[in-house]
Specification:
135 residues, mainly beta, 10 strands
């Protein structure tokens, strides 16, 4: 797990009492080879000012690497829980595995990097979709 996370944005707001930062305008977060971009990002920190949770919204898109496979995706909201190493995409959730062409669609997709587990959930009786090509 990489120790360094780089965050860039046009605007930055920090509320030390709440332990929260709000970044907006061309936000880009880099962690190792993982990249997250959005129009707005909220970073929640613990008492020692270490990030514990990231919430990106408004045009949230990402590129991540998991088990030597590359993924791109998007959603209405993208959450990263640092200590658990879990990504959660909420609302119009989409993930594309680039090497195989597999695609996941749902209302909520959870990727647990430590356990290498994916969960896809849907709501309002809309089915989750999994698309792949047969060879």
């Amino acid at each position: 797990m990489a120790d360094k996370i780089e965050v860039k944005a046009l605007n930055f707001y920090w509320d030390e009492n709440a332990g929260k930062s709000v970044l907006s305008g061309a936000v880009v977060v880099k962690r190792d080879r993982d990249i997250l971009s959005s129009d707005e990002l909220v970073i929640f920190m613990d008492k020692s000012r270490k990030p514990v949770r990231y919430e990106a919204q408004k045009n949230a898109k990402f590129n991540i690497k998991l088990k030597n496979k590359n993924y791109k995706g998007s959603g209405d909201k993208f959450i990263y829980i640092v200590n658990e190493d879990v990504y959660e995409i909420v609302g119009n959730a989409f993930i594309h595995e680039l090497e195989s062409g597999k695609k996941l669609y749902g209302d909520r997709i959870i990727v647990d990097r430590k356990a290498s587990v994916y969960r896809v959930q849907s709501k309002d009786n809309k089915p989750a979709r999994f698309v792949f090509e047969l060879k």
